[in-house]
């Protein structure tokens, strides 16, 4: 009887261990449930390690900001675990414009400099803004418009975590002005002057 119980426990443990994780097989298709799992025999410790967050992002761009993601596409070990991480670099004058992450909530942890950050609620359009210093943490609920701005004259750095291995990203400015939607339609839906719409499209690469 003892041998039978031992065998049952052993089989249960083996079954549980087999479902402990699902390292992404990145060469396969992506589904709403994520990537398919790598064959366990091909999983290595490297699948659970990401070394890129120690490297500063390139902030020589229009918004003077860079996000270095460790999402499932770069970090296969987070597949199916409901989390991911990234590094945010903001040069002096840098800004991450209004944007949303439709797939997950976000927590921002300031490790250098100072960042003004905030979000807008969807129910009453209430604005929540705070100037964050080194060591401060702020949370941004899933799907809500939010932003980050460098608040000092030095490079600011933050580590950002998400409640999804692939939180998604839509930047409001690019959604409005970096597409081929006719400028007259953008004018109607934003109440902006059509000349300004065309100017912003020219800056952000849109047409129409």
TrEMBL record:
Residues binding oxalate: 101, 106
Places the protein is found: Secreted, Extracellular space, Apoplast
InterPro entries according to UniProt: Cupin_1 (IPR006045), Germin (IPR001929), Germin_Mn-BS (IPR019780), RmlC-like_jellyroll (IPR014710), RmlC_Cupin_sf (IPR011051)
Record keywords, A-Z: Apoplast, Disulfide bond, Glycoprotein, Manganese, Metal-binding, Receptor, Secreted, Signal
Cystine bridges: 22-37
Manganese in keyword set: yes
All residue ranges annotated as the Cupin type-1 domain in the record: 51-198
Chief localisation class: secreted
The keyword Glycoprotein is assigned to this record: yes
GO MF term (any one): manganese ion binding
GO terms under cellular component: apoplast
Signal peptide as annotated in the record: 1-18
Gene3D superfamilies assigned: Jelly Rolls
Residues that coordinate or bind Mn(2+): 99, 101, 106, 146
Family, as annotated: Belongs to the germin family.
Name this protein carries in UniProt: Germin-like protein
């Amino acid at each position: 009887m003892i041998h039978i119980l031992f065998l049952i426990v052993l089989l249960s443990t083996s079954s549980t261990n087999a479902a402990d994780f699902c390292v992404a097989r990145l060469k396969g298709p992506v589904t709403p449930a994520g990537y398919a799992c790598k064959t366990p025999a091909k999983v290595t410790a490297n699948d659970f390690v990401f070394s890129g967050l120690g490297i500063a992002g390139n902030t020589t761009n229009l918004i003077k900001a860079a996000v270095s993601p460790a999402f499932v596409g770069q970090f296969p070990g987070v597949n199916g675990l409901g989390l991911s991480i990234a590094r945010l670099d903001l040069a002096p004058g840098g800004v991450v414009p209004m944007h949303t992450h439709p797939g997950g909530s976000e927590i921002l942890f300031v490790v250098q400099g100072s960042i003004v950050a905030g979000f807008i609620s969807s129910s009453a359009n209430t604005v929540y803004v705070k100037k964050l210093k080194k060591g401060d943490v702020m949370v941004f609920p899933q799907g809500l418009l939010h932003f980050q701005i460098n608040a000092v004259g030095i490079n600011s750095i933050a580590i950002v975590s998400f409640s999804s291995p692939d939180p998604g990203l839509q930047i409001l400015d690019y959604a409005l002005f970096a597409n081929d939607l006719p400028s007259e339609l953008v004018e109607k839906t934003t109440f902006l002057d059509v000349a300004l719409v065309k100017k912003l499209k020219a800056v952000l690469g849109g047409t129409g």
